[in-house]
Amino acid sequence: MTYSIVARDPKTGDLGVAVQSHYFSVGTTVTWARSGVGAIATQSIAEVSYGPMGLDLMASGKTAPEALQSLLKTDPRSETRQVGMVDSSGNIGVHTGSRCIDHAGHISGEQFSCHANLMSNDTIWGAMEREFKRGEDLELPERLVATLKAAEAAGGDARGKQSAAILVVSSKAYPNPWMGR
Question: What is the pTM of this model?
Fold first, then answer.
């Protein structure tokens, strides 16, 4: 139903998450980020708690892969989840469960991860990766938007597009989670 990207800008340390879907108001479910901590996309049969709990785990010192594994091991429906996480150091944690709806997959690289499920074809996440890598001279928000546009151009969500969201946070940690957005 959805494609997304989480990324850390190696130049500024800023963190971001962007998503597009046929799902109405997708940003309220999928996108999570906290300044100086990390960014998370939780989708497919989304478990919304992965967002705040994953950020709390990363804020307590776990890397993105450690935080994700901690959440997956206690989730009886983990095989229906698709999750991407990036922490403030650029570590990536990513999971596409075996019971996500086809076409579903992910690809990750240095300080980013692209994820998609219920797509029109299985080329979406590869197109996203190519566009993200190609846009290295762009500011992070523009780079994330270009990545979503590449996914749409490659075929996008099998049901069409309805909503999108982008959330970018500062590399600097702030005392309150709503600051630095």
Answer: 0.96
pLDDT for the residue numbered 159? 75
Identify the structural domains of the chain with CATH numbers, from first to last: 2-169 (3.60.20.10)
Predicted pLDDT at 162? 83
Average of per-residue pLDDT across 128-143:
97
* CA separation for the pair 139, 135 (Å, rounded): 9
